[in-house]
Amino acid sequence: MPKRDDINSVLVIGSGPIVIGQACEFDYSGTQACRVLREEGVRVILVNSNPATIMTDPDFADATYIEPITWQVIETIIAKERPDAILPTLGGQTALNAAIELHNHGILEKYDVELIGASFEAINKGEDRQIFKQLVLDAGADVARSIIAHTMDDLLEGAAELGYPLVVRPSFTMGGLGSGFAYDEEDLRRIGGAGLRDSPTTEVLLEESILGWKEYELELMRDTADNTVVVCSIENVDPVGVHTGDSITVAPALTLTDREYQKLRDIGIDIIRAVGVDTGGCNIQFAVDPSNGRIIVIEMNPRVSRSSALASKATGFPIAKLAAKLALGYRLDEIPNDITGVTPASFEPTLDYVVVKVPRFAFEKFPAADATLTTTMKSVGEAMAIGRNYATALQKALRSLEKRGSSFHWGEENRSADELLEISKIPTDGRIVTLQQALRKGATVEQAFEATAIDPWFIDQIVLINEVAETVRTAPELDAATLRYAKEHGFSDAQIAQLRGDDEAEIRGVRHGLGIRPVYKTVDTCAGEFPALTPYHYSSYDFETEVMPSDRTKVVIIGSGPNRIGQGVEFDYSCVHASFALSDAGFETIMVNCNPETVSTDYDTSDRLYFEPLTLEDVLEVLDAEAASGTILGVVCQLGGQTPLGLAKGIEAAGYTVLGTSPEAIDIAEERELFSQLLDAAGLIAPRHGTAVNADAAVAVADEIGYPVLVRPSFVLGGRGMEIVYSAESLREYFVRTAGEVIIEEGKPLLVDRFLDDAIELDVDALYDGTDLYIGGVMEHLEEAGIHSGDSSCTLPPVSLGRTDIDRVREATLAIAKGVGVRGLLNVQFAISAGVLYVIEANPRASRTVPFVSKALGIPMAKAASRIMVGSTIAELRAEGMLPEQDGSRVPLDAPVSVKEAVLPFKRFRTADGKTVDSILGPEMRSTGEVMGIDRDFPTAFAKSQAAAYGGMPTSGTVFISVADSDKRAVILPAHRLQQLGFTIVATEGTAEILSRNGIAVTVVEKYSETQESGATNIVDLINDGSIDIVVNTPSGGAARADGYEIRAAAVAADKALFTTMAVLGAAVSGMDAAHEGFQVKSLQEYALDRKAAL
């Protein structure tokens, strides 16, 4: 059945902000879908609240709405755009839940819009656990015994029937949020209670425990003619009990017999039929009991999932792209395979290599959090590697994580095999390295299996890697055979150097001298049966290379590696834009990256793609292979965040040109002393500061500057290790506490700055070509200084700065750009305190606000920067119309205001005793993603950003206020306004006193700390009962700090609006009227037309 002719416009629902469990793999699938639909001549309307992604770029849809994903807003868009159909299967759980809401509120019927990609029935069958369980049994497969509960009493009865331990899973949540294992009644009350609250249908499923079983996934696709293909089988190295997103996984599945695999395949095909997914992909998870082979179906997702991105990158089979075509009515056998060009999409992919995915965690950002891995997903990103065997792929994937200690090592290890085995019983980040050390110390495969339940085959592979290491260590000399043997098992030069007691550069010299270099193989979907048309490569120490020569001038772009907090999809956005812009300018673009979730690693984003770890060794080998096949103009390192910047010097030393700002210039901005000289010469002021390499020196510096001070290590991204310190004693404590995580040594000193209280912070993104400065935008932070810029809400254009302030900022930015020698992008952070402009820091690279600025003002910053790096000038780019005449420092009066709000993952992290980690913001970045609100004025835009970030502000109810003394004066006006709007106000004693003297009716509640003896009802109890709707709590020092923590933790756990700064409270109160009336919507394309008309 060819394409349907009754669908002319489609509304695609995006996945909203990046949160743990729903990350940029949905940006990747959504971007692919938008491209396909437009190629097919369909008008694409997109709604997504996330400004950081490629998907919400005005180039990818005909009407892009960066609006909150709520059914009310989507109804407004449907009424205005009148789409024929809605595609909800590419935006994760957010989009599916929105589609269900639209159906339940009768909106689909009212406007006669149909759901394509998955019908309401199929979504319900896949998501409603009771219906799904019956389907699986009907298909002749088995499920875990289970009981559905809607109340606490149901939970306790169910537990009596099934026996502990139990799996607790709330319905309709994403990334396993709220699920866990209950070993006794106390656990059950805690996890089950939270689950009833997290589930939109207050429904929780109790299941018999299948802890320690082997876990598999199949990725399938089915069309209307009942053609079904299994795209990829994935096996989890970690057994059941660790969420598949937190597990090391391998494709294809390696420990199944052919018969077992066929059985999983048959069950999978029966289930996709029974659920009725007939226009798209789905993912089914299985568990297999290793003792008797019993197969259980765990769950299915009737949509494109996290594993779909991995399966697409692992096989070269673009699941999301095909899902979009199937939704338009095509069949699999009518769609050609992009990579071979001759086989149809109904031809199942075959792999002649092994793919390993390893998760990247961010526990160092949440020191109080419990790092045990459970069925609630906690990883923030992932790296993938491809190799000719499992050992190579695993070693490459581990070194792709860019984390100290993530790779196998053979250095000093003081713990015994028994101690190491004991540690490895508990699944944590890095358990595989602990296991490697235990096996090295003489633990047997049987003991390791007993401790971890990881399949013996995977353990035996680690034993093999240890054996290879031993061979390398004891070889009389490092000859060609030994080196090649190590390389064929994925050893890096650094690992070989450690074994031989040499340094890395020396080993590399020997290896190159012996002519041992990798060749590059191609991902071709068919194991070499047909020639591949797309150069999608991975390295291998084989003999014949598959890199084709080319006569075009090349530009190599280094990506940003696995997502993590502080370096996320925003940097991928800049890399992809550079690739598009340079391609348009006639260059051949080459992408090097190892993150399977992103658009940059899609085989048709760049002319060539190398899926390799971003270490100096791996990147230099790619450059060598490309230099042999043509001319390299240079390498782009300033767009992928800190990762490529760290490689810039090594790339330059190897004789390649680093495009844009030179590594020497980058040093001027990073190196404290040089930067201070630059500021002095330009007459600019920085807060008083000093540097120190040990605790005594740091205390001496701080005493001279005066407390409070801000301390931070040099050369880090996302504020790693940054803290505000109020006394000499806590400064010494900082050194003790961070000893294991942060390197402070000669050449990498600790930076100590005077901390500016009560300052307004600003962020500027600008372009500089050596003569002209072009300001992208000046953003004003809503939180006061001291909160990391990535976690702060900010507004563009600024809403409280005068023109003279902005002119001063412009002059200062120009002086810094000139002094550093920037070519391309520059981000500078300023603070204004008591009328003085201070320079906080300058980064000569793409910053995380580039996509936000580009969308808010319609200035393609990343594209322009990539052109400047290859030699164009700002004047030329203005002339050809890429950059608007007027830059972002002067925004017209009637321009819309955009507000960016950070989305924080606090409720995913619990301390070991089950409490939420403290949700107070500080100088270290903790947000995983962001949303944007855009409207004609600041209050409305702010209200939209709140609705998009956490469902919006309540418009009536009870407000609790407890603020530090320094904020008592500022809280009076917002409190008055809340009272006028009809809210009831409660407060703790000190705050209540001030409010009632100012004529505000207020009820006093007890503090948490004061009722621990008496057991009276306190504020935390009230929040837990749900009787408080908004919490206003600004932190103060001393004993009150513990009270504040309890209040904030309770507010986050109960999902209540929480304000920890006065500035944001003021903004929220002014936006309440707007939220009350309902939002109007306008697409980015309409804003662009308005800007044109204004000229």
What does this structure look like?
With 1095 residues, this protein is of the alpha/beta class. The model has no long low-confidence stretch (mean pLDDT 86). Strands 14-13-10-11-12-15-16 form a seven-stranded antiparallel beta sheet, sandwiched between helices. Strands 17-18-21-20-19-22-23 form a seven-stranded mixed beta sheet, sandwiched between helices. It has a seven-stranded antiparallel beta sheet with strand order 32-31-28-29-30-33-34, with helices on both faces. The two termini are 49 Å apart. It is globular and about 80 Å long. The longest helix has 19 residues, at 456-474.
Largest sheet: 7 strands, antiparallel
Instruction: Please identify the structural class as seen in this structure.
Output: alpha/beta
- Report the average pLDDT across residues: 86
Q: What is the assembly state of the chains in this entry?
A: single chain
Give the strand order, joined by hyphens, for the main sheet: 14-13-10-11-12-15-16
